[in-house]
Structure formats: C-alpha cells, structure tokens
Specification:
mainly beta; Jelly Rolls; 2 domains; seven-stranded antiparallel beta sheet
C-alpha cells in the first residue's frame, strides 16, 4: 500500500513538473478556463499555493478573475472566455515548455491594465527577457495582444510572465489571458524580391476571434523580432493585422503603423553602391474605423517618398514606388506614418503597409525618383 501511494505521488509530481510540448496555438490551459479548486481561492479570487492553477506555477499575489468581476467602480472584462489571471506586485506565472533547441518562437498573449497608469510586463525565456510597456492602450475595449520572440537555447524552457510593479495596492496589476505560441520560420529570399517576408505572412500567432490584432514591440524590448526579417525601431509598437479580422491589401497579413513617427518598420538589405533599385509597396487602411487623410513614408538610401492616402474605412489601398541609388553595401528600407491617427473611440491607428518588394535596376544614377501608381 505504501509503495502504491508513493508511486501515485511520484506520478502526480512528474505530471505537474512536466514540460508541455509546444504546438502552434494556445498553451496548455493558456486561456485559464481550467481554474483552481475553490479551496485554493482566498476571498473568492486570491490563488493559494503555487500549483493551484492547472498547467501553471504561480508566485506572489495572483488572482483568478471571472469576467464581470467588480473592482470598486470598475467592471473587469475578460477578452476571451470567462476567466483570466491578475498579477499583483512582483507576481508571476510560469509554464515549462518542450521546444526545439535553436528554433525561434513568438509568444502572443492578451493583457489589460486594471489600476496603475504606467504598468509594464516582464516576459522571459531564460536567458532572454523583455519589458513590454502598457502606457499606451491600442485596443478599443481596453485589451491589447502583445507578441514577443525568443530563440530556444535548451530543449526545455520556462516561460515567465511577471509584473514588476510596486503599487500602493498590492493587488493592482495587469490582467493576463490567452497565452499562445507559434514557431517562427526564418524567411528566405524569393525570386523577384530582395526583401525577406515582404508580404508579412510570417509572424506571431493570432488569437482566435481576437479582432484587435497583435502588437509587435520595438527592438529595444525584444532581441528577436516576432516579425521575422523586420525590425521595429524607436519607442512605439506596430500592429500586426490579419485578413480574418481586417482588410489587407495582399495575402493574409499586413502591418498597421499605429505609432506615427515614434515607430518605424525597418529591414536592412545588401546593395551594390552605384546601382539603382526600385521599392514598391501597398498603402491602405485596415477597415478598422481609422478614417481621414493619412501619409505613409518610405526611405531607402538618400531617397524618400510620402504617399498620401485618404481612408474612408472601407479597406482600400493604393500602390507606390520609390527608386533610389545605393551608396553603401547595406541599405535600410524604412516605413513609417507621418502623423498620428485616432479612431472615434480615441485609440491609435494608422496606414497599413503590405506587399513590399525590392528589385535591382542595375543602372547608375545620382538621385532618387519617386511616384505613386
């Protein structure tokens, strides 16, 4: 009998500590719909014990929140399903993942502020980590989906989402929901295009029924871009959008420039000094309520083009071309929005960039030519 009991305990411990095998989509209990037993909840929400939430380990002040939970005059809403977790001061959630060493992955999760005006989220997969600021809210319902990428250094890794905040109320902190992952495949050059991933088809996982897109953070927050081959420069994120919930000019995915001149979409390519090149791309709107006069800018070498686009919110687009002379062995191709734009509800938005292609003309020139089609 003692041996049988010991065997059961060992099996339970092994199951608890086992790493979940990664497949594209939600992590095991990534939406937190499988909750702790009521005996492990203090005052109805505070999680007691580090292993109370199935498939997760918790540390610090963690609450298990049901959609509609009231916090003073605030009604907490869960974006998907009925449950989420809230991370108080220095609280964290952890899940062990079985991955392929050397492979690249993008984590996607949804988060919302509940108290503080300047919350941040730490995310890490040892030995890499990043800090995702939440000062700017891009989603009209108060939620945003964030992406963060890492390169697996081991066969088993620990994904940790941590609230580093120190608030007067220790319970204040972000709500976390719908944690997912996707394997990233580094894009290669295709015939007729010197840009990699020019159609933005390779990127982070889109949560089912998440109609607000996925934020891709600036490179200062992420050593590996969730948008392979592209870097996000400056301080603001860009929004990754899909054809299932938005209008995109080409294919299934595109990028919405929601940070004005505070964010830039950048790719560096090999060029031959003295040769000319033609950059073509599409500029449009995502049919997400962002209307008005927009201007998208493109830079390459010493040439620039500003592409005006008037959005009526129908998801249209136009094409533009920039020809430039390379003066270095490597040239940066840059896209950004000239202005900030807001929807009627006050959330940030902007022009969409898609179908970017770069081809050599192999003709020497001294200036840049630009035109819209």
């Amino acid at each position: 009998m003692r041996c049988a009991v010991l065997l059961v305990l060992l099996v339970c411990a092994a199951a608890r500590d086992a790493a979940a095998v990664v497949t594209d989509g939600l992590l095991a209990n990534g939406n937190f719909e499988s909750g702790p037993p009521k005996s492990d909840l203090v005052n109805g929400t505070v999680v007691k014990g580090g292993n109370a939430i199935p498939n997760w380990q918790t540390s610090g002040f963690v609450e298990y929140i049901e959609s509609g939970h009231k916090q003073g005059d605030m009604l907490l809403v869960v974006p998907q399903g009925a449950h989420a977790v809230r991370l108080g001061n220095e609280a964290s959630i952890l899940q062990r993942l079985s991955v392929t060493r050397g492979a690249y992955y993008a984590v996607t999760f949804s988060a919302a502020r509940t108290c503080a005006q300047a919350e941040t989220i730490n995310i890490s997969v040892s030995p890499e980590s990043g800090v995702l600021p939440m000062q700017t809210i891009y989603g009209s319902n108060g939620w945003d989906s964030y992406s963060w990428a890492f390169k697996a250094k081991f066969d088993t890794v620990e994904l940790v989402i941590h609230n580093p905040g120190v608030e007067e109320d220790p319970a204040c902190g972000p709500l976390i929901d719908a944690v997912a992952i996707r394997t990233l495949y580094p894009p290669t050059l295709t015939k007729g295009n010197m840009l990699k991933n020019g159609g933005f088809e390779e990127g982070p996982y889109f949560l089912p029924n998440a109609s607000w897109g996925v934020l891709v953070p600036p490179n200062i927050e992420d050593d590996h871009s969730p948008l392979p081959a592209w870097m996000i420069m400056s301080s603001k994120a860009v929004k990754y959008v899909d054809a299932a919930h938005f209008k995109v000019p080409e294919g299934a995915r595109a990028v919405e420039l929601v940070g004005g001149k505070e964010s830039a979409l950048v790719q560096e390519v090999r060029t031959v000094p003295g040769w000319t090149y033609r950059l073509s791309f599409a500029v449009g709107d995502a049919n997400d309520g962002c209307t008005g006069s927009m201007v998208a800018e493109a830079y390459a070498g010493r040439a620039t083009v500003k592409v005006p686009y008037t959005s009526n919110g129908a998801g249209g687009y136009k094409r533009a071309v920039l020809e430039f002379a390379a003066d270095r062995n490597r040239t940066r191709v840059v896209f950004q929005s000239t202005f900030y734009h807001m929807k009627p509800d006050g959330t940030l938005c902007g022009p969409v960039i898609d179908d970017a292609k770069l081809i050599p003309l192999r003709k020497k020139t001294t200036g840049g030519r630009r035109h819209m089609l």
